Queue: 2 jobs
Job 1
Amino acid sequence: MTDHQASPTPKTIAVLGTGKIGEALLSGMIRGGRRPADLLVTARRADRAEELRTRYGVESVTNAEAAKRADTLILTVKPQDMAKLLEELTPHLPTNPDAGTSPLIISGAAGIPTSFFEERLAPHTPVVRVMTNTPALVDEAMSVISAGSHATPADLAHAEEIFGGVGKTLRVPESQQDAATALSGSGPAYFYFLVEAMTDAGILLGLPRAQAHDLIVQAAIGAAVMLRDSGEHPVKLREAVTSPAGTTINAIRELENHGVRAALISALEAARNRSRELASGTG
Ligand SMILES: NC(=O)C1=CN([C@@H]2O[C@H](COP(=O)(O)OP(=O)(O)OC[C@H]3O[C@@H](n4cnc5c(N)ncnc54)[C@H](OP(=O)(O)O)[C@@H]3O)[C@@H](O)[C@H]2O)C=CC1
Ligand SMILES: O=C(O)[C@@H]1CCC=N1
C-alpha cells in the first residue's frame, strides 16, 4: 500500500520504542495472528533491535522509516522521551494531510495528553491515547482508550482491536485517563507489592519462602477469579471469609489499625497526581 493512503483497515503497524510495553503489545499482536511482515519496530539500541528481529521475525527500522511506512504508529517510549521522538517523526509525516489520510498515532504513554501530540503534528492527525498494563504479556491487560480531537470511530475501533488482542479494553473520556493510570496502569504493581509483603509474613510464620509464595499467589488468583466471575461485591466476598471470632477478623483489625485502606487511597491519589505532572512530557 502507498504511504498513508486512506484505508478503512490500516495495514502496517509500527511500535516505536519497543521496551516492556511495546514488546508486550508486539508479542500479543503476533499471538493474535498478525503477520510479522505487517509489523515494524523501532528501538534506540542496535542490540535491542536485533533481539526483537530474532525473537519475533519483525523488521526493525528507524523512527523516520516507520513514520514513512506505517499506517498506525504506536508510541511506547517513556513520557520524558516523547517530545524527542515526535521531533524525529514529524519531518517524515504528511505535513498537510486531508482528513483520513494521516497515519493513526496511538500513544501508550502515561500522563501525556492527546493535545501534546496534536500541537506538534499536522492538522487532522488522528491521535488515540491508551493506558494499558503489563498483564498484556499474558493477554490479561486492561487498556483504557480515549480519542483525541481528530480520531474517528474507526480509529478508536482500530485501537480497540489492537489492544483487545491482549486483554480487556474500556473507552473513557480523556479527563479520566490520569485516574485510570493510577488504578489499572500501575495497578499490577500494587498487587505484586502485596504478594511480596504477605510472602514475608509467611516467612515470619515459619513457612518456606517458595511455599509461602505459592499459597499467596493461589489465594490472589482465586480471589481475582471470584471478583471477576461471581458478580458479588468485594464486601460480600470478604464477609464470606470472615468468620465470627475467627482468624480473618483479627487480620482485618490490624489492617484497619495500620490505616491500609487510607494508605491505598492516598497511594492511588499520588499516582494520579504524578500522571498529571507527566503531561508536559518534560519529566
Ligand atoms: N511499564 C508499565 O507497566 C506501563 C508503562 N506504560 C507506558 O508505556 C511507556 C513505555 O514504558 P515501558 O515499556 O515500561 O518503558 P521501557 O523503558 O521498557 O520502554 C521504552 C523503550 O523506548 C526506547 N526508546 C526511547 N526513546 C526512543 C527513541 N527515540 N526511539 C526508539 N526507541 C526509544 C527505550 O530504549 P532504551 O532501552 O535504550 O531506554 C526503551 O526500550 C511509557 O510511556 C509508560 O508510561 C503504560 C502502562 C504500563
Ligand atoms: O509507572 C509508570 O509511570 C508506568 C505507567 C503506568 C505503569 N507504569
Note: The chain has a mean pLDDT of 95.
Job 2
Amino acid sequence: MGGMVDSTGFCAPSTGNIVKGNALHWFRHGLRLHDNPALNHAVCRCVEGSSASGRLFCLFVVDRSRFELPRDEAHNVRMSAARHRFLHDCLRDLDDSLRQRGSRLIVALGDPVKVIPQLLTEWRIGVLTYEKDVAPYSMERDALVNKFAMEQGVEVYVQHSKTLYDLDMLKDKSGGRIPLTYNGFQKLTAQAGRVAKPVALPEGPIPGPDENLISEEHKQWIDTNEYVANTPLLFPGGETEALKRLETSLSDPKWVANFEKPKTSPNSLDPSTTVLSPYLAMGCLSPKVFWHRLADIYARHPKHSVPPVSLHGQLLFREYFHAVGYTTDNFGRMEGNAICKQIPWDRNDELLDAWEYSRTGYPFIDAIMAQLRMEGWIHHLARHAVACFLTRGDLWQSWEQGASVFEKYLLDGDWSLNISNWLWLSSSAFFYQYFRVYSPISFGKKTDPNGDYIRKYLPVLKNMPHKYIYEPWTAPKEVQMRAGCVIGKDYPMPIVDHAVASKQNMQKMKVAYEIQANRISSNSKKKGNSKSGDPPIKRRRL
Ligand SMILES: Cc1cc2nc3c(=O)[nH]c(=O)nc-3n(C[C@H](O)[C@H](O)[C@H](O)COP(=O)(O)OP(=O)(O)OC[C@H]3O[C@@H](n4cnc5c(N)ncnc54)[C@H](O)[C@@H]3O)c2cc1C
C-alpha cells in the first residue's frame, strides 16, 4: 500500500495504477549521493523484495519563476550568474555520479507543483522521496505535492538530512520552543544525544529510469545559457568538489584542532576558513560527514578548540539557526516576527544601491561587496562589517533589504542562515549590544594594514599609498593624482560620515529598544502578568 511515511504516519489507499517499486527521488537541495537517507529509501524500494523490478527516476525541477536566468551583468535577477553556474555544476556532477552507477538525472522545467504530479502519473511512481526543506516557500510547495501524491496512493518518504539532527525531534524535545541562546541550544542538542552516523548508499548498480516512460521533453538536458556557462567560478559546484574540498580543509589536523572563528581574517587573499558553506547549503556535502570527520580529528588532539569558536561550534551555529528559523512564524521578515525587534529602518534605494555596487566611498566595505558580487563568497567577519554598515552602523537600511541582496549573490545563500545572521548583525535578535559598531576604517586595518585586499577587489585604488588606502579622501590632491584615483571623480567620497552616522544610529536604536520594552511592559501589565514582565513568546508556526 502507498502512503505518507513520515512523522504523520498517514497511509492513503493505493489507486492501483502505479508500479510499487517505481521510485521518484526529487533532488532539490541535498545534491549528493552520500548520506542521503531519502535517496537510500528510494533505491531500496526499487531493488528489494517483490518490487525488485522497480526503477528509480532521479529528478531536479528548474523552477524558472524562482531561477530566472541572468543574461548579462546589468540584468537584475534573484540569483546571480555565479549562483546559477554553481547549481549547474552541481547537477552535472550529480548526473555523472548517477551514470557511473547505471542511472542518470532528469532535469525538468516548470513549477514543481504542476510538474511532479504530472510525472508521478506518467512514470507510474509508487514512492516519492525527498529531503525535507524548511524554508516557507518549500514547505508550502511540498504540502501541495504531498497532498496530490497521497490522493494517488503514492508513498511519500521525507527525511531531514540537511541538518545534524532531525529538526522535528529537536522541536519536540524543546516542547516546541527552541532556546533563543546558543548555550541553551547546546544543552538541547546534548539532551538529543550524539549526532547520528552518516548512511552509505547501498552498493551496486542503481536501476535507471524506464526510458519508455520518459517523454521527449524530459529526455533533453536543460542547459544554462552561454552567459552563465562562461561566468568564472572560484568555487565550482558539486558533490565531487565538496568532498575534495573537505579533504583539503581537513588536511592539516593541527589547524582544525586549533581553529577559533573570531581569530580568522576577513580580508586575507586566501580564505582563512573552510569555504565549505556553498557545499553545505546546496547539500553537496552532508553536515554529518563533516561533523564526524572533525570528531575523529578532535579525538586525536585532546586539546582541541570547543564551541562556539571551534569548527564543531560553527556547525552548531548552523544547526541552531536552522532550528529557530523552522519554529518561528514570519521568521524572514520584521513584521509579525516575535523574536525580531521592531526598528523604524529607512528605505532609500540610492543608499542601498551604493552599498550593493561598491559606491559607499569606504574602500573596505566596497571591496567586500565587490568580492561578494564577483566570487559569491565572503568571510564571516566581512559579512559582519557590511551588514552592520548597511543597518545600525551607518546607512540605517532594513536588514530585509540586505538579506535579499546577499541571497542574490551568496553561493551559500540559505534562507534560515542568512536571515538569522542578519537579525544578529542588525541587533534585531540574538545579539543586543547595538552600541558595538564595526568601524569601516579601522576594522579591516587590523588584519590587512597594507590594504592588499582592497587593491585586489577595487583596482581603482591599487596605487593609493597604504597610509590612505582605508581613507583615500584624506590623501592630499597630489597624492590622489599620482595614484591615478581622484576622490569624487574616480572613486566616491564617503556616502556618510561614519563618526556622525553611527552615533545618531545608536541613539535611534536606544529609542527603538525603549519603545519596545515599554510596549511589552504595558502589555504584560494589561494582561496582569507582572511576575516576569515578559510577554509569552508566540513564535510557533501553526
Ligand atoms: C549577514 C550574514 C549573512 C550570512 N548568510 C549566510 C548564508 O546565507 N548561508 C550560510 O551558509 N552562511 C551564512 N552566514 C554565516 C557565515 O558567514 C558563513 O556560513 C561562513 O562564513 C561560511 O564560510 P566557511 O564555510 O568558510 O565557514 P567555516 O568557518 O569554515 O564554518 C564551517 C561551516 O559552519 C557553518 N557556519 C559557520 N558560521 C556560521 C554562522 N554564523 N551561521 C550559520 N552557519 C555557520 C557554515 O555551514 C560553514 O560552512 C552569514 C553571516 C552573516 C554575518
Note: Residues 201 and 352 are 46 Å apart (CA to CA).
